[in-house]
Design a protein that fits this description.
The chain is of the alpha+beta class. It is built from 7 helices and 6 strands; from the N terminus they run H-H-E-H-H-E-E-H-H-E-E-E-H. The longest helix has 23 residues.
């Protein structure tokens, strides 16, 4: 009986550890990967770059009108706007890791088929944004700026080099 109780406790602790590890790497509002997870991915991509095996693209997203929404309708509506934007991004880029890296900033890392099909995905993303809104005393549209950069082995020494070009492309 004591042995069975110990095994049950060990299994429970193992499950709890998995839950904690999962929640430590997820954004509580959106369910997306968070900055802790993002930093781990960046470290892995920096290794791939050093090993000359990297092939990826970075899409940086910035949610427009968040401050105005918060100021006009309140932070609950702003949170709804963030959650809706994150769903649009993660639905379109469903085969890529998507991160919430700041209050209204998101990032997707494109590889394999998503990298090959990036232009088609960008067109789909634009269509989804155009038809998505939240209703709060009228319709508030989902407006998301985006910038993209592809890893260039002859110029990019680190993941952050690609990130900076994607961020600049957003403007």
């Amino acid at each position: 009986v004591l042995n069975r109780a110990f095994e049950n406790m060990a299994a429970h602790l193992h499950e709890r550890e998995k839950e904690l590890r999962f929640s430590a790497n997820r954004d509580s509002l959106t369910g997306l990967r968070n900055t802790t997870s993002y930093k781990s991915w960046v470290a892995e991509f920096d290794k791939e770059i050093q090993n000359k095996s990297a092939n990826f693209g970075v899409v940086v997203f910035d949610l427009n009108q968040l401050k105005e929404t918060n100021d006009t309708f309140g932070h609950d509506v702003g949170d709804k706007l963030i959650a809706t934007a994150s769903k649009v991004i993660s639905d379109v880029f469903k085969h890529s890791p998507v991160f919430r890296i700041g209050g209204d900033e998101f990032l997707a890392i494109l590889r394999h088929k998503d990298l090959e099909d990036c232009e088609k995905l960008f067109a789909q993303f634009d269509l989804e944004c155009a038809k998505t809104f939240i209703e709060e005393m009228g319709e508030i549209p989902i407006s998301i700026a985006r910038g993209f950069a592809r890893f260039e082995p002859e110029q990019d020494l680190r993941f952050n080099d690609v990130f900076k070009r994607a961020d600049n492309a957003m403007y």
